[in-house]
Amino acid sequence: MALFNATSTPGAAHGIADQLKAGHIHLAQIGNINVNLGAGVYVLYPPGAQAQARRVAQLIPNLSPTVEAIQPEIQNTVSQHNEIIVVFN
Fold first, then answer.
1. pLDDT band at 59 (very low <50, low <70, confident <90, very high)
2. How many structural domains comprise the chain?
3. Which residue range forms the structural domain that includes residue 22?
4. What mean pLDDT comes out for the span 4-12?
5. Which of 60, 56, 76 is nearest to 14 (CA)?
6. What integer pLDDT is reported at residue 70 of this predicted model?
7. How confident is the model at residue 55 (pLDDT cuts 50, 70, 90)?
8. Residue 16 is inside which H or E element, if any?
9. For residue 34, which of 64, 73, 80 has the smallest C-alpha distance?
């Protein structure tokens, strides 16, 4: 799984990373990204991973994440395939 900060605030996603790690989620990548999703937290999933994405979202309920299928342009931007991606925007 990967976590990306899409805000202009350095380190803004570290709180989310801590919550996910506490829920035994392995984050293969944490970084920054430039995408236009609108404000909020997004749990984006590849085909067949909706149930797993919903479980990930349950680990960060205080942020009310939006769970939706990953858009091809975002998947290409992050170069992660068949992996759930959390974007803090």
1. very high
2. 1
3. 2-88
4. 87
5. 60
6. 93
7. very high
8. helix 14-22
9. 73
With 90 as the cut, is the pLDDT of residue 9 above it?
no
Choose between 36 and 4: higher pLDDT: 4
SS3 (DSSP) at 62: helix
Q: How far apart are CA 88 and CA 5, in angstroms?
A: 5
Q: Supply 19's token pair.
A: 């919550």
Beta strands in 1-89 (DSSP E): 2-5, 29-32, 41-45, 66-69, 85-88
In this structure, the number of other CB atoms found within 10 A of the CB of residue 83 comes to 16
Burial per residue of 48-76, b for 16 or more beta-carbon CB atoms within 10 angstroms, e otherwise:
ebeeebeebbebbeebebebeebeeebbe
CATH number at residue 9: 3.30.70.2390
